[in-house]
Amino acid sequence: MKQNQQLELSKEKVPLFKFILIGDQSVGKSCIVERFQNEQFSYKTKATIGVEFIKKLVQVDKGLVEIQLWDTAGQEQFRSMIRGFYRGSAAVIIVYSVNQKESFDQLSIWMNEIEQHAHPEIIKVLVGNKCDLPREVEKQEAESFMNNNQFSLFFETSAKTGENVEEAFVQAAKLVLLKYLSSESFRQATRVNKKSADPINIIKSSNDNQSYEGQSPSQQKNSNSSGCC
């Protein structure tokens, strides 16, 4: 049986979590979604009008998690409409472009949106997209912003090459599961598919409960190479 057929058969047995993708226009949010969903890249991606969403199953340790990913428009005129989509979200992925300093400078505005409209325990992931292009934002500057604003994860990605795109969502899903296990308020606030398996059982069945919260990919690699489990 092919892997995608196996995933379809398992679909009713996995938890469903809502993720929201935010950031300025033209930072590549829709291209990230296309890469994540279909492992493809297109130069002809149209600007998102309002919000769009996809669903995808991802492997987290020994279990599966279904991500409902909401791709939001970056234009300011859609901000008021988007605010309602923070409700029930387990994770927020904030995207800037490493070759557009202005998009990085606007992150504080997006942080205000999160603070006002998202659950205080939401998993926050910072993503610097277009790392295949000449940069205007240094990685150290982004890591400093991450640490100062209590992000759980930071990745530099390329929707064009696929670098770190899948990894960002997988690691975010892992932290969502761990937060679901440890926080009653988070469990109440996030929308989990009530017909599916309890995420707690997935966590307990895993042999690898290592948390990467607050680490960049390079720090995660060093943690793995140290032999810590």
From TrEMBL:
InterPro entries, A to Z: Rab_GTPases_membrane_traffic, Small_GTP-bd, Small_GTPase
Residue ranges of the region described as Disordered: 200-229
GO molecular function: GTP binding; GTPase activity
Low complexity: compositionally biased ranges: 215-229
Stretch forming the signal peptide: none
Biased composition (Polar residues): 203-214
Pfam family, one: Ras
Stated family: Belongs to the small GTPase superfamily. Rab family.
Listed name of the protein: Uncharacterized protein
